[in-house]
Write a structure and sequence with these properties.
alpha/beta; two-stranded antiparallel sheet; Rossmann fold; Helicase, Ruva Protein, domain 3; elongated; 9 strands
């Protein structure tokens, strides 16, 4: 007797995509081909996995919910190009996982990310940007709006700037709640992330750049000067004020008003002063 598939678990932030037309549009964005290596994060019951596997691409599907593994293993038992793995994407060693399976290759990524961990997963992908050829991710629409926001608006934030340094980010389409079971309370959006051949701007020291950007947005009500002082950049005399002045940036501005290029210029200046 066939057992019913496991129900979605709130603890895992699961909302299974059931709309065939949306699934097909996601596959079109991924554009899989037989020569590709594709990482799918959170395959759930395997709806997207099935369509991706039809392309003949090599597919690694990583699922955290143990109750879904028997369903996935049974579904793809006769598909040698599909590997089902168990793991928490936030804890998995991605470089080791991917390079041991396809040395010297870049990967495409497809994922319907749980809303509660999407930002954390994006930071992890950012750290591994050279591993990827293309990422197609389903996110809460509000998160997607932040990632494509221009400067000087409330949606613009640290993750917007950090991702833009290494990726072209584009919203592909919006997905309404009725496309999922259980039905979420918010709209979702599918975004594509295309890695750049080189960073969009020269930042000098990327660790300083990341600290700088995160510090500028950490306390959004503070002026840029005070926010960066609070983030530890004002500990050495007048270097921070000198750097702002030399870059032509008013320390009385808010971090959300700075463009990527302004953050990069400030980062380069501070990297020289702190070296």
């Amino acid at each position: 007797m066939l057992q019913p598939p496991p129900r979605a678990k709130k603890a895992f932030g699961q909302n299974f995509l059931i709309d065939d037309s949306v699934l097909s549009r996601i596959v079109a964005c991924v554009a899989p081909s037989p020569g590709d290596a594709i990482l799918e994060v959170g395959p759930g019951r395997g709806a997207l996995t099935r369509l991706l596997a039809q392309s003949g691409a090599r597919l690694l599907a990583v699922e955290w919910d143990r109750d879904l593994l028997p369903v996935l293993n049974a579904e793809f038992a006769d598909a040698p190009q599909v590997e089902i793995g168990h793991g928490d994407i936030l804890r998995v060693d991605l470089p080791m996982l991917l390079t041991t399976r396809a040395p010297g290759r870049t990967w495409k990524v497809a994922a319907n990310l749980p809303y509660n961990i999407s930002s954390q997963v994006l930071f992890k992908f950012l750290e591994c940007a050279p591993l990827f050829e293309r990422l197609v991710l389903m996110l809460q629409k509000e998160v997607g709006d932040r990632l494509t926001a221009p400067p000087n608006c409330k949606e613009y934030g640290a993750l917007t700037v950090l991702l833009r340094l290494h990726f072209d980010v584009q919203r592909e389409f919006v997905v309404r709640p009725g496309a999922f079971r259980p039905v979420p309370k918010v709209d979702s959006a599918v975004l594509s992330f295309q890695p750049l051949a080189a960073p969009r701007a020269e930042v000098g020291d990327e660790e300083i750049f990341r600290r700088l950007v995160k510090g500028a947005f950490n306390q959004r009500r503070k002026t840029l000067l005070n926010a960066l002082r609070a983030a530890g950049f004002g500990a050495e005399g007048d270097r921070l004020e000198d750097a702002l002045s030399e870059c032509g940036i008013d320390g009385g501005r808010r971090g959300e008003t700075l463009s990527l290029e302004e953050f990069a210029a400030l980062s380069r200046n501070l990297a020289k002063k702190l070296s």
